[in-house]
Design a protein that fits this description.
The protein has a single domain, classed as Jelly Rolls, CATH 2.60.120. It is mainly beta. The mean pLDDT is 93. A hairpin with a 5-residue loop joins strand 1 and strand 2.
Amino acid sequence: MIKIQDDDNCLLGIILKKDKIFDKEKHFFTDDNAEMQIASFDLSKNTVIQNHIHLDQNRNIRTTSEVIIVFDGLIEVSIYDKNLNLITIETISAGEVVVLFEGGHGINVLEDTKFIEVKQGPYLMDKDKKRF
């Protein structure tokens, strides 16, 4: 796991490299207080995760976090701090994951690529995004 932070230790993103994602039976990559939670599970046959329901909660979500899971291809992700200063550019390949929390980001598709993006909703086009 690569943690990307700004000079104030604000968590901007996490990169999960394919050879390090499943190194434990159950592993949460985020702290309990993070607005987006991400974990990996490497469970043995016949393991049971008990039936459960997530109860209604009133949560205060300040920003939209995103998870990008690359299935095929290659992308380059530019990660910026909250002041839009470039912090790093990371290459994400098939089987890898990038989680984006704070600041800005951009994606450059280096090869034909298939990925899934997961983020909180609802999405409000006029209020959710500022391009730079």
